[in-house]
Each structure stands twice: as C-alpha cells, then as structure tokens.
Design brief:
This protein is an alpha/beta fold. It folds into 2 domains: 78 residues, 434 Repressor (Amino-terminal Domain) (Orthogonal Bundle), CATH 1.10.260; 183 residues, Endonuclease, Chain A (2-Layer Sandwich), CATH 3.30.870. Helices cover 46% and strands 14% of the residues. It has 11 helices and 6 strands. A hairpin with a 4-residue loop joins strand 4 and strand 5. Helix 2 crosses helix 3, helix 7 packs across helix 8 and helix 9 runs antiparallel to helix 11. The chain is globular.
Length: 270
C-alpha cells in the first residue's frame, strides 16, 4: 500500500489537470493565455515539470485555484526527490558538454527509440494515461545530441546483459539495437559494452550519469527503482566518475562494441 501513495508532485499535477478540465479548457487554451507552449502545460499536468512562480501567479486565477497549491509546492514538493525529467536535470543536459552514462539494465534514455521507450515507461510506476506525453518528453530530450550548436559528447557504457534483456518483445529489441548501433556511429556518441565475463560486473549497482557543464562544473544523476537524485557534492560526483572509468576500462573498444550490438540485433530477428 505504501508504495502506491500519491506524491505531492503527482497531486499538484492532477489538481492542475482536474481544474483545467472542470473549467472546460484545453491545454492549448491555457497555453495561449499564459504565452507558453502546449507541451509545457502537458509537462505540468504529467508531473515532469513544475510551474515556475511567475507562471503560477497567472495560472491559478485562470483555473480557479487558490494559493494552497503554491504552499504545497513550496513546502511538500520541494522536499521530494525529483524524477529524471525534472526541469533541473533537463537544464543540466542542455548545458552539458559531455555526458558519461552507465547502464546495467536498459538502453539509456537518450539512446532509446520510440517503441523501446514506450515499453520501458509502460513497465514503470507511472500513470498509463500519461504514457504518450512521457514518451514524447523522452524523445524530445534526445535533440541535444543532434543540435547544430556544439552537441555534447555522450559516452555510454552498457552491461552486455542490456542487449539480451527482453523489453517490449523481440521486434522492439531488434529495432532498438539497430537504432543504438546507428547512433554509436555518430562522432559525438560513443557506446561501449562491458562483457558479462568482465570482473567489473561485480561492481554494478545501478545506472548513473555524470555531466560536465559548459562552465566546467560537474553534476550527476543517480537512478533507482523508486526515483532519481541529482547529485552535486564534488566528492560524490568524483566517486561516480571513478566508478565509470573502472567499468569503461573493462569494456570492449568502440568498434568492437558496435559489431556486438549488431550481432545481438540479428539474433533478436531470428
């Protein structure tokens, strides 16, 4: 029962959606009133993002909501660990010059195709009604890798088991691995696979990302079964960076990793 408790963040999102629908307003109509995008309204209503104070000031009268929602955000939501798509980490990704990603269970979100992302999110503890919005948000994040203005270098180290775990069925897996191999050919995307026989596998605990920002600062994101955490303490970030380098040291080289991914994709096709 405790695992199904509604968080304050989800409560805020549901209240915003409930109030909008009670007023008979579409997301587009609210967005037009606030001079923001429809996708931003969707982000608020699916608890991916929180309205900023300047937006709340205009949003609450439109929806007929009182200041109690502001207090919920300030006093309750602020104390919760943010999910991976919270605005803070999105900002980190957009400002990153490099991203060091380690995954032992699934393909990293920045490298997922649509069907694979949908299967991953469908299996998570999320409201299935929000699935389309969550998939769209995940795909939108990936645009940083193909932007013309200095895209970040992504180095993704994956456990070999990621290539063999069933996510969405054989076709979804085959298509995802073809997609992954194609992305790994890009100049700014490096994918390396840690073989199952490597001693480093004993140290695998959970996925994390270390980001270096445009001002040289470093932040990390650590994921878990329940939530995610943005890590800023230099010591903690340094520990994660060292772990990444240890895992990468036991990984196959770039070209060998791509060849392995392609072989695995062919196996899923048979």
């Amino acid at each position: 029962m405790g695992g199904n408790r509604m968080t304050a963040r989800v409560f805020v999102a549901k209240e915003l959606r409930r109030a909008r629908e009670a007023k008979g307003l579409t997301r587009a109509a609210v967005a037009k009133s606030l001079y923001v995008s429809d996708s931003l309204i969707a982000g608020w209503e699916t608890h991916r993002m929180l309205p900023r104070p300047e937006h709340l000031e205009r949003l609450l009268p439109i929806l007929g909501l009182g200041d109690i929602l502001v207090r919920v955000i300030d006093e309750l939501v602020a104390g919760e660990v943010p999910p991976e798509w919270l605005d803070k980490w999105l900002t980190v990704e957009r400002r990153a010059t490099s991203l060091l990603s380690f995954e032992s269970t699934v393909v990293p979100g920045l490298l997922q195709n649509e069907d694979y992302a949908r299967a991953v999110l469908r299996a998570g503890p999320y409201d299935i009604a929000d699935l389309d919005d969550m998939v769209a948000a995940r795909l939108d994040r990936q645009k940083i890798l193909s932007r013309e203005d200095s895209p970040p270098v992504l180095v993704a180290v994956l456990a070999e088991s990621v290539l063999g775990q069933t996510v969405g069925g054989a076709k979804v897996m085959a298509d995802q691995l073809v997609h992954l191999a194609a992305l790994a050919e890009r100049e700014n995307v490096i994918v390396q696979i840690v073989p199952s026989s490597a001693e480093a596998c004993a140290g695998f605990t959970g996925p994390f990302v270390v980001a270096t920002l445009d001002d040289g600062a470093e932040l990390a994101y650590v994921d878990s079964q329940l939530n995610g955490e943005v890590v800023g303490r230099p010591h903690d970030v340094a520990v994660l960076r060292r772990m990444f380098e240890v895992f990468r040291a036991d990984a196959f080289p770039r070209r060998q990793s791509i060849e392995l991914i392609r072989r695995k994709s062919e196996q899923w096709m048979t």
